[in-house]
């Protein structure tokens, strides 16, 4: 048996190797192809023909084969289209999709109307991490008590606002350049302009006020990846100086002494972390009854204790900022009228130096000309999209060859989710049906310390357990018991896992503590690959590391007796001789 | 009372660990009303002897259900939610957030119904006041006082803080007290509110010095520092936060103290604090130096405009003045030199370190130093100054940070003082007394009458090394800078 297993394994390995070899050449021509493509249309046809050869070497069955056949027929008349794939929007989602498409041998173009890299790189995750990195250091060095307890003394710590702002700007520029180069190196065409659908294979693009850029391109498949812009509720005028969104705040043009942040989600939280470290005071305005809505309740409570209470932050919950009057820095304060969420009565007026609107993000889908492919966005502007990332028309039917990924479809508004959706879309257009499990997509908030999670909250898990009638297991550990965390004197934090006690399925993992954002992937990968509690319990973690927090978390999970015995992944713990 | 045996069991049950029969004999002696149950500090681990209340998840008056988490307790290992073992209403909390209690000590009382809430409250008050002694002394002694004590505890520091006040108070007493808002609203920053809670200051009684009468953290600190005496305390805007005079101190010390404390001081003699003694010694020492004074008027319209422009960036008037002086001193090395102790030579100092006199909230004054004021940019100076003042209040300055000055500024401008005379700190060549800037009718160079804001600067110098012309030339340079302040950037 053992011998047979070994053999079959090696066969599998060999097969894998072979397919790798097969796949490789198809990529390289794709890259060099670009230059020749423009030279002659007939060459291009040949290239495209080649590009669809690669998938044919993979085993196919049933429906898949049919769709491939269709696709090949398209490829046969490949001269019809300029590209195999055109991606509208070059943010992280579009970039991820482009990379995967090229790897699959497709000829790809991206159309970008603003900045390469999109929100994440230019106005989101990336520059905010630079601000958080700098302000985190400042917070650390200003915490004299904490340093003293480790035997460190520092003199007065000071910073230069512009220096920190420049760091963020430079980082964004670097990442943007890297991203652009990586596309160019792969032979992806970058077209500049704002795109508009003509039909489901044709897109027009242009820049307002420019006659020298623009044109029309055709493609077999089109991905909408236009992303989002900050959402500003009605009644809030943005002046970019005293009332602004994350777009302006990331430039860190000044440090208001007192800033109100409307919305206490992860954007607001991260900014409160930056501002308070730099000596500003913060007031949160939250429409929900609790601050940090969307987070697991217990984690939010702990986060409140660590990230809010000891800092110069206060908050108003269950109120909306019904009216905001911009001020003049140093002269006139910003007035924020607070209205009770339930009674709709004005309850208070804040007088602060600045107001950051962090009430989430709205899809950027205006001007796409979706009507010409029979598609209506929903009330909030999201593009209706199937679980396979196919765009749906007014009647809920799939619009052939048009896909939508990322913030524009509103499924999960995170950069890496967009990228994963992009890969999923490519798989689907190549006839390999793929559905992304959003429950396995991790999320993180980069405060000090960080918050991260994957899957469902405890509240949701309890609901599920009740509904489906399974026993819910909850395992918890504290950073206080972790040697590495204690060595850093950062024992504040916890991890929590929600799982099915009968099957061992992992439903959700939440971490609050030092480097939580880096720790979550063990859990998210386990969920993505369908590993159960029984499987991951036997994983080994280096000592002493923060990863041991998860080690302890997994080991603290206990299944119902029956389930544990019938465990499919019979743990290799048994020392009994194995029949050979 | 027929239920007393049952109650004994319930009481011993503790908040989290229900162990009937574990009642200590001592506890049964106490009569517990039927409808009020205790929540005890649970033992969360085998090694736990005491726990800290991290958060109360419920507030007094909230309904609680059996099995519902009501409090988060921090043990030696972790933070844990502690569940309630009774249905009812949280009547009173005995051990507040952040306080510690021994395992087994009562941390709250749960009333069975609305009607019993009063009883629970009474119990909480009673156990705090008298009960602990006979009942589980070790267990309850710690948490109990904390519940009832806040009032006296807060009251106690008040007189103590008031006592040394006169020394520091004179100057601010003359201050234009920050206006309370006309609409009667209290606008306080988040940190000011937290501080007020921590320092037990009634935030409604403070006038704010921030924009539109906003109460800032420093207003609260000042209020607390003066024993909570309300409006008398706050001095001027944050920009001038630390300014009250050094040289003015000897004179001020004999001047009448703040009105609120005068009556208490009549007919008493208070010994100096160490700081006051040091000031006294230095002042006598200064009599050995032949001092003379030179004054000049300077227009400040442009400086004020610049300040207004830079204020959002955190630049303070104090820093602007220090920077102007620093830049002016570059051309006049003798102004920041010192006479050798034997009076036989001049020591030229390598660095332009500008010291600024700051009155301490508890009496005395200190002169934090902005080092290398000529070479440091205005933003950095402002930050350094904010840091120095903060730490000076916390008495955390290193000696080097208050005795390395080579030139001193004393500013009483924010009190509306026109001009005054400073006493030279020993070991330096000059000190500059800054008066208030006010609109003044002046003859303009083009022969017209105009209104300009004008302030008086009065230099006191050591005539052994600085002569009249030296001081005058320095003032000329300074005037040029202050009247064209753009060069400070």
From TrEMBL, chain A:
Active site per UniProt: 543
Keywords noted in UniProt: Disulfide bond, FAD, Flavoprotein, NAD, Nucleotide-binding, Oxidoreductase, Redox-active center
UniProt keyword Flavoprotein, yes or no: yes
UniProt xrefs under SUPFAM superfamilies: FAD/NAD(P)-binding domain (SSF51905), FAD/NAD-linked reductases, dimerisation (C-terminal) domain (SSF55424)
Residues that coordinate or bind FAD: 129, 226-228, 407, 413-416
Single biological process term from Gene Ontology: 2-oxoglutarate metabolic process
Disulphides: 120-125
GO terms for MF: dihydrolipoyl dehydrogenase (NADH) activity; flavin adenine dinucleotide binding
Domain FAD/NAD(P)-binding stretches: 83-422
Cofactor note text: Binds 1 FAD per subunit.
InterPro entries in the cross-refs: Class-I_Pyr_Nuc-Dis_Oxidored, FAD/NAD-bd_sf, FAD/NAD-binding_dom, FAD/NAD-linked_Rdtase_dimer_sf, Pyr_nuc-diS_OxRdtase, Pyr_nucl-diS_OxRdtase_dimer, Pyr_OxRdtase_I_AS
Pfam families: Pyr_redox_2, Pyr_redox_dim
GO CC terms: mitochondrion; oxoglutarate dehydrogenase complex
Residues involved in NAD(+) binding: 263-270, 286, 360
Co-factor(s): FAD
Domain Pyridine nucleotide-disulphide oxidoreductase dimerisation span(s) in chain numbering: 441-552
The family this protein is said to belong to: Belongs to the class-I pyridine nucleotide-disulfide oxidoreductase family.
Protein name (record): Dihydrolipoyl dehydrogenase
Species per Swiss-Prot/TrEMBL record: Raphidocelis subcapitata
TrEMBL record, chain B:
Region (Disordered): 1-22
GO cellular component: a single term: pyruvate dehydrogenase complex
InterPro entries reported for this sequence: 2-oxoA_DH_lipoyl-BS, 2-oxoacid_DH_actylTfrase, Biotin_lipoyl, CAT-like_dom_sf, E2/Pdx1, E3-bd_dom_sf, PSBD, Single_hybrid_motif
Domain Peripheral subunit-binding (PSBD): 187-224
EC number: 2.3.1.-
Assigned protein family: Belongs to the 2-oxoacid dehydrogenase family.
UniProt-recorded name of the protein: Dihydrolipoamide acetyltransferase component of pyruvate dehydrogenase complex
